[in-house]
Amino acid sequence: MPESAIADFVTSFIPDTATHVEPVRGRVVMSKRRIVLATEDTSVTIPLPGVFDVQHDSAPRDLAEFFDDTVTVAYERDDEKHVAVIEGAGDTVDKFVTLVFKGLLNGTTVYAKHPARRGGRVTDQSFESGELYVSPGSLALRDDVGTAIDLSTVTHFERVERDLNGSSRPLLSVRHMSDAGAVTTELALDSGRKMNLLGRFIRLRYTHLKQDLKDVTLSTDEVETLVAIYSSGPDASLAAVLGVGASRVTMLLNDLVEKDLVQDSDGVTLTDLGRAAVSEHIEDVNF
C-alpha cells in the first residue's frame, strides 16, 4: 500500500551536513513514516523512528549566508548519526515542523501527575497513564489523564527526577496556567529519545512566544485588561471588572488587538500571544 504524503513543498536544504557544504534546491516530502529530501539527481530518506532531535531557530553562524531560519533534523540511520538542515522561514515550514513532532510523539504512552502542584503546594495526586497528542499550541493528555496543557501559558519547565512505579525516573516538570490558577504538571515517557523530543517541542513553542513578547510594550492598564479577560471570560463586563468607562475599555481593546494580543469575534478572547503575556504578568496584578 503506497504511503500518502502529509507534507510536500519545495525549498532549499542541506540533505546531510557530512556530505554537503552548501544547500541545494529540491522537494521535502513527508509521510507518517519518513521524510524524503529529493533533488533532480538524488534523494535522502530520514526514517521518523530514527529522529532524535528537531530544532527550528535562526540559522547558525556558519549557515547564515544561506539561510535566515533553519529546521535542523538529527537522526540515526544504519547505526550512523546524520544531520539535515532545511530552510526554515514561512508558514509552510511552521506547519511542517508541527507535523514532524506529531509524527514523532502522537499516540505515545505518557505518565502524568496532574496537577503535581497547585501554586506552591504539593498535591497528593498520583501518576496516571494516557496517550500524548501534540498540536501547534497544546499538549493533550488523553484517556485516564484527560487534560491539556496550553503551551502559551507555560511559565517554566525543567527536567527533574521523581519516583514512578517504584523507580527513579527523569521527568519534565511544566508550570503553566489553568482555569484554577498556576499549576505544575509532571510528565514521563518510556523512551528517552521521545522525552528529549517532547522537551524540545515545549521549548520551541515557549521560546518563540517569549521572543515575540520582547517586541511588545504594555502599559499597566493594558496588563490589567489582559488579566481581566483571562480571569473573567469573554462574556464579562470589562468596564465593571476594571472600574472604568466603556469608551476607555474600547480604546484599550483596540490597542491590544493591534498588538495581536486580543481578538474580538464572538466575544473578546486572548490570542496565544495574549495568553503568554498574561502568564508573564499575572502575578503583578491585584484586582
Q: Descriptors for this entry?
A:
287 residues; alpha+beta; PH-domain like; Arc Repressor Mutant, subunit A; 3 domains; 8-stranded antiparallel beta sheet; 6 helices
Could you please describe the fold and organization of this structure?
β3 (about 35-40) and β4 (about 45) form a beta hairpin. The longest helix has 23 residues, at about 190-215. The protein is globular. Strands 8, 9, 10, 11, 12, 13, 14 and 15 form an 8-stranded antiparallel sheet that branches. It starts with 6 loop residues before the first strand and ends in a 6-residue tail after the last helix. Helix content is about 30%, strand content about 40%. The protein has 3 domains: about 5-105, PH-domain like, CATH 2.30.29.30; about 110-215, Pleckstrin-homology domain (PH domain)/Phosphotyrosine-binding domain (PTB) (PH-domain like); about 220-285, Winged helix-like DNA-binding domain superfamily/Winged helix DNA-binding domain (Arc Repressor Mutant, subunit A, Orthogonal Bundle), CATH 1.10.10.10. The model has no long low-confidence stretch (mean pLDDT about 90). It has helices spanning about 90-105, 190-215, 220-230, 240, 245-260, 270-280; strands spanning about 5-15, 25-30, 35-40, 45, 50-60, 70-75, 80-85, 110-120, 120, 130-135, 140, 145-150, 155-165, 165-180, 180-190, 260-265, 270. By secondary structure, it is of the alpha+beta class.
- Please tell me how large the radius of gyration is: 22 Å
CATH class of the largest domain: Mainly Beta
Spell the H/E element sequence.
Answer: EEEEEEEHEEEEEEEEHHHHEEH
* CATH fold type of the largest domain: PH-domain like
